[in-house]
Inverse folding.
């Protein structure tokens, strides 16, 4: 069984960009976002994956991911995924020996920038970068499945 342990934070400014690697454009959609799990299709540059993740609130969730043909993924995004699709550019940023993933959202979620850090265990220590804001790991509004139904642009 795959387990993902991930902390998610808001980003307060653009100072992270000085250490960022090249951005990877992503488009993802949800075939299912149910009580127990979500099933996501994602195109990352020229690769595509199918992802199944438990809907557990918090930093620890079950996760299974499989490479799928790019053409199949694009067809699924176009025909079977709930709209709007999630559009973002992901930037890797090294800080204090860890690689953060900064997601700069576009489309319906323009204006939202989130930093994610995958950990080996829930209590693993890490140094917080100066551009890091409040933690939103336990706030379901920031889950991509929720951003489809309630895009950031509609928040008051």
């Amino acid at each position: 069984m795959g387990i993902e342990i991930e902390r998610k934070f808001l980003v307060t400014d653009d100072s992270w960009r000085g250490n960022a690697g090249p951005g990877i454009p992503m488009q993802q959609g949800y075939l299912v976002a149910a009580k127990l799990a979500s099933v996501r299709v994602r195109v990352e540059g020229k690769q595509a994956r199918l992802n199944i993740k438990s809907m557990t609130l918090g930093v620890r969730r079950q996760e299974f991911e499989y490479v799928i043909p790019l053409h199949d993924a694009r067809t699924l995004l176009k025909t079977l995924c709930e709209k709007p699709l999630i559009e973002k550019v992901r930037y890797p940023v090294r800080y204090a020996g860890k690689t953060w993933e900064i997601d700069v959202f576009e489309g319906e979620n323009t204006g939202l920038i989130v930093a994610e850090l995958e950990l080996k265990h829930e209590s693993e220590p890490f140094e917080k970068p100066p551009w890091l804001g409040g933690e939103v790991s336990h706030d379901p509004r920031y889950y991509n499945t929720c951003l489809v139904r309630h895009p950031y642009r509609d928040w008051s």
In short: The two ends are 39 Å apart (CA to CA). Strands lie at 3-11, 24-33, 37-44, 47-54, 60-67, 86-95, 98-106, 113-118, 132-135.
